[in-house]
Amino acid sequence: MVELKRNQPLARDAMAYVLAGGRGSRLAELTDRRAKPAVYFGGKTRIIDFALSNALNSGIRRLAVATQYKAHSLIRHLQRGWNFLRPERNESFDILPASQRVSETQWYEGTADAVFQNVDIIEPYGPEYMIILAGDHIYKMDYELMLRQHVDAGADVTIGCLEVPRMEATGFGVMHVDEKDNIIAFVEKPSDPPGIPDRPDYALASMGIYVFKTKFLIEQLRRDAAEPSSSRDFGKDIIPYIVRHGKAVAHRFTKSCVRSSMEREAYWRDVGTVDAYWEANIDLTDVTPELDLYDRDWPIWTYSELKPPAKFVHDDESRRGMAVSSLIAGDCIISGASLRRSLIFTGARISSYSSLEEVVMLPDCVVGRSARLRRCVLDHGVIVPEGLVVGEDIEHDRARFRVTEKGICLITQTMIDRLG
Hints:
This protein has 420 residues and is an alpha/beta fold. It has 2 domains: 10-285, Spore Coat Polysaccharide Biosynthesis Protein SpsA, Chain A, CATH 3.90.550; 311-417, 3 Solenoid (UDP N-Acetylglucosamine Acyltransferase, domain 1). Helix content is 22%, strand content 28%. The strands form 6 sheets. Strands 1, 4, 5, 6, 8, 9, 10, 11 and 12 form a 9-stranded mixed sheet that branches. Strands 17, 18, 20, 21, 23, 25, 27, 28 and 29 form a 9-stranded mixed sheet that branches. It has a 5-stranded parallel sheet with strand order 14-19-22-24-26, with no helix packed on it. Strand 15 (315-316) and strand 16 form a beta hairpin.
């Protein structure tokens, strides 16, 4: 029986705990009504679906999501799309809003506190391992391989890490490691990041993914909660303490990233700015994109609405419904409009004589006749008036909409309403 236990996947004894309370303020108006993990991505999914799908595809059947900031859109999505896990199969799915469980005045004070406040919910499930995940990154990863490294190394904590060019790591928490990837020091946003012994021009940047034995994690959370000066954060408090007093090991993303035959390199994106968000979505229109959403061996689960197919109508020389190098979701009607290198979510209505190039359009948008849109992001439900031109005069755009450093225009319905 002991041998059987050893050979079975560790994911069976693990719980994935997703931290999804972030504001995502750098996404500007895209997070005015929703938390960053709830932001739409890729034509059908939300950002959080990637972390949850990784857990499910890795064999983890106990999932929990901690929410806080403007959580309604996120909670509604989770209830609709992730309610298929069944307790009678030893599966569970818990949505854990900040609900003042510890104190009647205390919301989640930090990432560690967002776990600590729910210890009484975690313990009855009896998971042997906890994997703590950020809910706001785009990537595909087999957590079973990280769990196995954690057990084989006898680590107190194993931290998922990206190998990034050394001087690009200044905005991350960086692991200083020895030749065996044991973490010697954890440095938050260093001006001179330590290199990796086998790749001195690269540094190991934290992905915000942590593996613990559950008992050890709860001990550390209780210890930290009793420390008055703590900010109740994994990166600032829990991890540095374990690095100093225990055994912390780095797990390189390249060892567990999931790639189809179409993906050349390990893919990980933080779509935390409007520019990064636009780029990651538009990149999906490439002939061979860096992220393969069509990989049936590692599907990205989500809430899938029952909608009719996309429809393209009219075939006159100046009025042809067409899309080239674009992703078009269901329930879209392209009526005599021309689209190039664009990503269109569910429910769009795009009228005749309009042209769109490099546009990311969130669900339920309407584009009036003869509009010309280029290099922009349209928020959910935007109604573009007839003849509107965006992307041809950046100064004119800046007076009406939000324009990023790279010239991407973000458009919301409030901005449209101000046009009069």
